[in-house]
Amino acid sequence: xxxxxxxxxxxxxxxxxxxxxxxxxxxxxxxxxxxxxxxxxxxxxxxxxxxxxxxxxxxxxxxxxxxxxxxxxxxxxxxxxxxxxxxxxxxxxxxxxxxxxxxxxxxxxxxxxxxxxxxxxxxxxxxxxxxxxxxxxxxxxxxxxxxxxxxxxxxxxxxxxxxxxxxxxxxxxxxxxxxxxxxxxxxxxxxxxxxxxxxxxxxxxxxxxxxxxxxxxxxxxxxxxxxxxxxxxxxxxxxxxxxxxxxxxxxxxxxxxxxxxxxxxxxxxxxxxxxxxxxxxxxxxxxxxxxxxxxxxxxxxxxxxxxxxxxxxxxxxxxxxxxxxxx
Length: 327
Description:
The chain is an alpha/beta fold. The protein has one domain: Rossmann fold (3-Layer(aba) Sandwich). The protein is 51% helix and 15% strand. The protein has 13 helices and 8 strands. The protein has helices at 2-48, 84-90, 92-96, 123-136, 149-160, 181-186, 194-200, 202-219, 233-236, 239-259, 284-293, 309-312, 314-326, and strands at residues 54-58, 61-68, 72-77, 100-105, 142-147, 165-171, 270-275, 297-302. The protein has an 8-stranded mixed β-sheet, sandwiched between helices.
């Protein structure tokens, strides 16, 4: 009898375990199905949004860039989660190309540029990559603008290669460490292993759901301008781009810790511009404080504008570029 009881107990345990096994199987199946769907959506987005510019390979990295106009070189670096079409839809590229040779890159992992996994893509690593790329394009000195995370790349380029950067325009950047729980949450798809699963399954679906809320935060207090319809959301929510964005979210605070004592070393003209009502990054704690750190800097707070100042106050950003070039 004891043996029979033991067998019965095991059978009952197995039966009790089955619902969990079944649930795990359903979850695994749902994740696999969502990965297939997301892969197909990513391929569709790339077909519908083909490269608008050219490619070059730098240190094993295939980079996509757009070049417009003629004159003094002007380099534009987009923010986290963005791509060339952000500057394109804003009208800034067309406006600047009237007087400048404008060069805009898809930074690693965004748009049509690759992001190899054997590199930690800090602002410094990206600065070296773009310095080499620009030299191959025959650029020896340039006015450099960076928006948001791109401002960190622009600053790193100026600190590492000061003779190359003629003047800086820094728009809506994050420069000093602060407590940001949202950065930690946004960096989850970058966690090795787990992050790959998230970025290929759940994260693209969640990103599509929260897209309207995200736009409300980054554009507020302004409404989203009609011209932003030209920005390809489907490209931004691809698994590869979500992973790149998550990695950069995780690097924001460490980069600010590493860089914030170096800003006083900048010697070129620096124009700082930010929306006075930025809901994503505190303008006074970040841009205002940076203005205090860099003696020769000038700062412009754009009333009624938020984080996407280049979209909602394009003429003001263009004026900042001209001011930097004149200085």
